[in-house]
Amino acid sequence: MKFFLFAVITCCSFLQLNAQRSCATHAYWQTQLNNDPALRLRYNEIEQSAKTRPLISKKEQGTGVAEMPVITIPVVVHILYNTPGENISDARVHSQLGILNKDFRKQNDDTAFIPSAFAPFAADCGIQFELAKTDPEGRPTSGIVRKKTDRSSWQQDDKMKFSASGGNDTWDSRYYLNIWVCNLTKSLLGYATFPGASPEKDGVVIRTDIFGISPDNATAYNKGRTTTHEVGHWLNLKHLWGDTDCGDDGVEDTPPQKTYNSGCPSFPRIMANSCNPLPSGDMFMNFMDFSDDACLHMFTTGQKQRMQSLFETFAPRESLLHSMGLKEPWNTATPPEHLQDSSSLHVNLFPNPASTSLTLRVNKKELTMPATYHIYDAMGRSVLEGNYTAGRIIQVHTLRTGIYLIQLQWGGQTLTAKFVKQ
Ligand SMILES: [Zn+2]
Predict the structure, then answer these.
(1) How far is the CA of 114 from the centre of ligand 1 (A)?
(2) What local confidence, expressed as pLDDT, does residue 120 receive?
(3) If you measure from the C-alpha of residue 232 to the centroid of ligand 1, how many angstroms do you get, rounded to a whole number?
(4) Which residues are tagged catalytic?
(5) Is 394:360 a contact under the CB 8 Å cutoff?
(6) What is the pTM of this model?
(7) What is the mean pLDDT of residues 98-104?
(8) What is the C-alpha separation between 382 and 85, in angstroms, rounded?
């Protein structure tokens, strides 16, 4: 691993930077631990607790040990953009949430490609993700915060996590998974904190062009698996090779591995001088290896247990179970300035709540061309759509009582807003 870090950080050849996944989490975390003795103590304690946990076999799971109910984690996505193209659509964010949910619930379409030798280890991790409905002050939110920034490029130095350095401040990380989407320098795909991090830095950072599904992304990282991998770190998973030659990832059912894989290896993948004695070789299709997105398919039962243990009483991610982020908003005052992106377009709805009709107002400039609108219910189903021109009133009397999202699109612009039908 030392050689790998050296290669990634110091040898900036085009070939190396594009030939393999470039997750900065290990290097970032080592720096954090070296700079903060209190963090090292906290993290050692978390690690100790994770290591002493015996692996529950499939048999035991089936007979005596109760499965934890599915855990839903409230998510806020901070989109930091310098160019309009970096201000990615809500649809891109939703596509990424969809991928996370499939991958962590073993509902991904490509589980069929898991070699039969490894298939029995593949787990539904019982963890899912949902964009926040309520911000830390109790106000309604889409769970997506957009902010224009003067910075055109970002490093693994946490500047994106602070408004004072051109980023956007963390939402209380005890109650939200914070994901910052920004134009990380091209040699990085993303990085994450492990549990125990300083609360104001806790979260995941992903490079804009590989977040969610985009037709513009023709790279090997076009299936949203970088976010799956980084959220795995945020939930205390290590790389399979333990970030050293044949290291330990703290998980019993992942085979020992000499180092990372890249590209799309064929099964069985037996590395030269491997420490893995099994004929099935490396578990290169595990989300915590470095294979291409198209060739990552699974977490294991051991990884699931390691992640789920974080939610037990007094464990470091337990507070997320008590988040108000997915409850109904209780504060209907206007959002404070620091939570709005006043420099960008947004749409206001009147009245809200609405009973029969809805008027839309776009700030800064009026619509100059016909737009289309779609209204989605809380389950994400499209329930109403049509054409929209400025000043028109949209009839909503046919909708049932509940919370809806309206999406307005014109000339490459997309705006969304939430409203309540009463
Ligand atoms: Zn990683």
Answers:
(1) 20
(2) 97
(3) 8
(4) 230
(5) yes
(6) 0.76
(7) 98
(8) 26
